[in-house]
Amino acid sequence: MQHKLIYILLTLASVITYGQVNLSMDADKTEYAGKDIINLTIVLELNGSDLVQQTGFQLPDLSKFNIIGSGSVTNTVIDPATNTLITQKVSRIALEPKKKGKIKIGSVLVTVNNRIYKTEPFDVNIRDIVDKRSLAANTSNDVYLNMEIDDRDVYQDQPTVAVLRVYSRNMDNLRKVKNIHLPQQDNINVHPINFDKSEIDPSGYGNMPSQVLAMFMVFPNEAGYVEVPGVSASVSTYSNKTKIVSNKVKINVRKLPEGAPECFKNAVGNFNVNVYNASKEKPEAKKPLNVVVKVSGEGNLPDMELPKIAASPDYEVFAPKITAKVTPGTAGMKGEILANYVIIPRKSGAISIKTEQFAFFDPASKEYVDLGQKTLDLRTFSHDQILEARSTVEKVNEYTNNLLETVNTPVLKTTSFKVKEKSKFHWNILLTNIAILISLFVAYLLFKNWQKKRTLVRETTPAKPLGSVAETEKEIRELMKTDINDYFGYLENLKDNGEYEKFFVTLEELDEEVRGQYFQGSASEFKTFLEKHKGSSVAEEYSKLQQKVQMEKYNPVKSAEALEELLKTIVNLYSQINK
Question: Which superkingdom does the taxonomy of this entry point to (predicted)?
Answer without folding.
Answer: Bacteria
